[in-house]
């Protein structure tokens, strides 16, 4: 069964066509890496999947239920706000800039959504939060505030915060792009652990190494379209499309 | 010195009136929060209405607004208590300024905070009250402190509708007794009040200094 299906997604910002008919199906336990040059639409695609952006045309289902579907004339029509809210709860999101709540302690960052949204008791929320912090290696930072943490630590807290809602699928929007190079490793390690636990993941990333090692499927996007997809070795080691080849040679050359 | 002591009770009564206007006008703080949020409403007529409100109440002298609420309404046959007129004028005027401060404070919060709350499933109300406003309060504290200090001094304007607050008492005494001493005493009273306000805001700022 598909955790997520996106079919023929179109999205424009004004005159600028960002997504020009993108389809994506994600099976349970799959780890998908989306790579591509800046402006290729990969982040926008991810943001459309959990309605941080609304799409113009296309269909998105989460665990088989429609979040948005196309009318006969092609226009995208969203489900009721109530249904969307319920469906979005199945998706965790990790941002490039962490977006932790600065006025809340690390522990509170993890507890707030379970308590406010799922009406979990404070005790239970705290227990879950501490377990998750332990899992991302930050148990000793529970009472610190985000500004006291390094970027890598903040991103690990952000991952734990998303996990606290017990999502079916985790979306990562360039999770290491805002980090100093020496801090990316700790974040990627946490993500690799998640993958080993068969968490379903969609990762928009520039980390080719991570994509090669962890992803079941690599998708290369350019100019609002999926140019090529396949296993990591197919796409990264033996790309068929000329655009994929030139992108990879640029990226790999820069290392 | 004896003169000072002799007029102190009267000055003190004036000060009580000043304090009362000051205290009641603090209601404009919560009102300002609500109006600031309304100004950012996606419901265009509301946002537009708020813009007009701010334009009118921030764009005319408080003194004129006082005259309007008292004499203006009286002229069209609506009689309200002098105190009521004062509260109307002050609360609505200060709420306009504060709404602008809160609006800009809300807009200064990074969009990522809304998005993070949104993907975690927080409702708009929860996002506002739990995530956005606590951060806004910290940011707008200095300009709010400014407004509150202005308010301490603006209370003197109500002399125009013959309410005997501190400065009017001083003026009356000065004229009758042919001396400037009452003005000096009034100044001391104002300085004491603003000093307390200043200390209070410093204290709150320190309390909110636990995060950046």
pLDDT under 50 segments of chain A (min length 5)?
A: none
The two chains with the largest interface, and their residue counts, are: A-B, 25 and 20 residues
Rounded Rg of chain A: 18 Å
The mean pLDDT of chain A is: 93
Biggest β-sheet of chain A: count, sense, barrel?
Answer: 6 strands, mixed
Question: Care to count the β-strands of chain A?
Answer: 11
Categorize the overall geometry of chain A. Answer: globular
Fold-level CATH name of chain B: MetI-like fold
Shape of chain B: flat
Number of domains of chain B: 1
Oligomeric composition of the shown chains: heterodimer
Order of strands across the main sheet of chain A: 7-8-9-3-10-11
Sheet-strand content of chain B, in percent, reads under 5%
Name of the CATH first level of chain B: Mainly Alpha
Helix content of chain A: 25-40%
What is the CA–CA distance across the termini of chain A?
A: 38 Å
Residue runs with pLDDT of under 50 for 5 or more positions of chain B = none
Write down how many β-strands of chain B occur, each being a DSSP E stretch of 2 or more residues: 0
Chain-averaged pLDDT of chain B: 94
The helix-and-strand class of chain A reads alpha/beta
Structure description:
The complex is a heterodimer of chains A (255) and B (212). Chain A has 255 residues and is an alpha/beta fold. Chain A has 9 helices and 11 strands. Chain A has a 6-stranded mixed β-sheet with strand order 7-8-9-3-10-11, with helices on both faces. A 5-stranded antiparallel β-sheet of chain A has the order 2-1-4-5-6. Chain A is globular, with a radius of gyration of 18 Å. In chain B, helix 1 packs across helix 9, helix 2 (28-39) packs across helix 3 and helix 3 (44-59) crosses helix 5 (82-108). Chain B has helices spanning 2-25, 28-39, 44-59, 62-75, 82-108, 111-119, 124-154, 166-177, 181-207. The N and C termini of chain B lie far apart (50 Å). Chain B has a single domain (2-208), classed as MetI-like (MetI-like fold), CATH 1.10.3720.10. The mean pLDDT of chain B is 94. Chain B is mainly α and 212 residues long. The chains are: A alpha/beta (255), B mainly alpha (212). The interface between A and B is medium-sized, with 25 and 20 residues.
